[in-house]
UniProtKB/TrEMBL annotation:
Residue ranges crossing the lipid bilayer per the database entry: 6-27, 48-69, 75-100, 107-129
Keywords: Membrane, Transmembrane, Transmembrane helix
Lineage: Bacteria, Pseudomonadati, Pseudomonadota, Gammaproteobacteria, Lysobacterales
Native source species: Luteimonas gilva
Superkingdom of source: Bacteria
Alphabetical list of Pfam families matching this protein: DUF1761
Name the record gives this protein: DUF1761 domain-containing protein
């Protein structure tokens, strides 16, 4: 944990939080809500709890990904590993769950696409900021 750049991890977590605001906001809010069976005009839980929890989980994911990459990853490796982690670990895992839950391909593409970009951003930030 000492060898990772804690500021880069914090910025990476913030980047995924901001990406989520755009991705699940103006880009895909209506489609995601429809596919997930969520009322877009009715919040699910207390906003501070939801957003605080989401940021905490983003921070954990960014920190563990930074440990996986090591202290000074090459940029190409870091971004490639981010795309692979988002698409092949997170996206594929969601795909398994969505198949058993009978969720739509569209929902999987929205969620898997977000996590692929999330980890690619982590890789970009961690690969640039040693």
């Amino acid at each position: 944990m000492e060898s990772i750049n804690h500021w880069a991890v914090l910025v990476a977590a913030a980047s995924s939080f901001l990406l989520g605001g755009i991705w699940y906001g103006p880009l895909f809010k209506r489609a995601w809500c429809r596919e997930a069976g969520v009322d877009p005009d009715k919040p699910n839980g207390h906003r501070a709890k939801v957003f605080g929890g989401a940021f905490a989980l983003s921070l954990i994911a960014a920190a563990v990904f930074a440990m996986f990459l090591g202290p000074k990853p090459a940029l190409g490796f870091a971004v490639g590993a981010g795309v692979a982690a988002g698409l092949c670990w997170v996206g594929a895992s969601f795909g398994i769950n969505y198949l058993f839950a009978g969720r739509s391909l569209k929902l999987w593409l929205i969620d898997g696409g977000y996590h692929t970009l999330q980890f690619a951003l982590y890789g970009l930030i961690l690969g640039l900021w040693h």
